[in-house]
Amino acid sequence: MKIGIPGGLLFHKYEPFIRTFFNEMELDVEYSVKSSKEILDLGIRNCVDEACLPMKLFHGHTAKLQKTCDYTVIPRIMKCEFGESICPKFQGLPELVSGGTGRSNQIFTEPIYMNDQRKLKKALKKSSRLIGVSDKKMEKAFSSAMENQRNTSFGLNENNYRHKIFLAGHPYNIYDSFANMNLLQKLHNLDVGVITEESVSRYEKMEALSGLIKRPYWLFFINNFAPAMALIKKKEINGIIYISSFCCGTDSIIIEMIKNRLGSFPLLVLKIDEQTGEAGYNTRLEAFREVLK
């Protein structure tokens, strides 16, 4: 029995946990390759037209794995570490994938609450039993995976460049070089370094949100709006680049909230989808570099 694990969406965020968990259970696992034009084309054919680029890429990763694997892991993430909500598409991801690809061979589809270790362990144990893994082996794998996840550092904080910007956006847009058309390398070529939200502490994020009437409940609002405000206050950055998927509902609100607080502070919003052209993309980056002080 071969199990496929798609590398899109929040795989980057939870990769240490995922790899350790499945390796410790000694399962035959195949991880998807990096995103590419082939993956995107597969995703477009197997996903609804209205979906965002990351969702289409995830469908593409899954469709490719389904050709060689008996089962694919399609997580149903309900809450993240601190109880914040994410895009509702994550909660219905198994149904979206099965409806798009026409196959229902998903496993590990139990609701996952990353903010409740007891619930998380219970969900993974239930799914592991379905593929013949003993509770003892699963619990050992779970402990190792949690430890590896806790001990892994994430994020970027680059200081060896003339300019430094806060690179905002969802992690699957920031760290997928195909989706963002090698954005990090392009910025480095322009002598621009980046800092990402992972390099801003939870305390600083909460402090930056204290001026709002109500604390937001979206994970990606907290991880984009709050670091932007904190870094500007500390005068640690020259500008902000927000890379956003076309038709992302949460981003449309987050970006407006950031704009309302910035005044004349440099902000570049890059919208990406399967139609985005690289020439215009590069021109906008070069022009933005010129306004950085």
- Counting structural domains, the number is 2
Q: How are the strands of the largest sheet arranged?
A: 2-1-3-5
Following the backbone from N to C, one meets helices and strands in this order, namely EHEHHEEHHEEHHEHHEHHEHEH
Beta-strand content bin: 15-25%
SS-based class: alpha/beta
CATH topology term of the largest domain: Rossmann fold
CATH class (first level) name of the largest domain: Alpha Beta
Described by strand count, sense and barrel closure, the largest sheet is: 4 strands, parallel
Distance between the termini: 56 Å
Radius of gyration: 20 Å
- Mean pLDDT reading: 91
Topology, number of strands: 10
DSSP helix fraction: 40-55%
Shape: globular
CATH arch. level architecture of the largest domain: 3-Layer(aba) Sandwich
Tally of contiguous helical segments? 13
Uncertain residue segments: none
Describe the protein in words.
The chain has 293 residues and is an alpha/beta fold. The chain has 2 domains: 2-151, Rossmann fold; 163-291, 3-Layer(aba) Sandwich (Rossmann fold), CATH 3.40.50.11900. Helix content is 48%, strand content 15%. The chain contains 13 helices and 10 strands. It has helices at residues 11-24, 37-45, 53-65, 88-91, 93-101, 117-130, 135-151, 171-174, 183-189, 202-209, 219-233, 249-262, 278-291; strands at 2-5, 28-31, 71-73, 76-79, 106-107, 111-113, 163-169, 192-195, 239-245, 267-272. The strands form 3 sheets. The protein has a 4-stranded parallel beta sheet, with no helix packed on it. Strands 8-7-9-10 form a 4-stranded parallel beta sheet, with helices on both faces. The radius of gyration is 20 Å and the shape is globular. The chain starts with a strand and ends with a helix. 42% of the residues are buried.
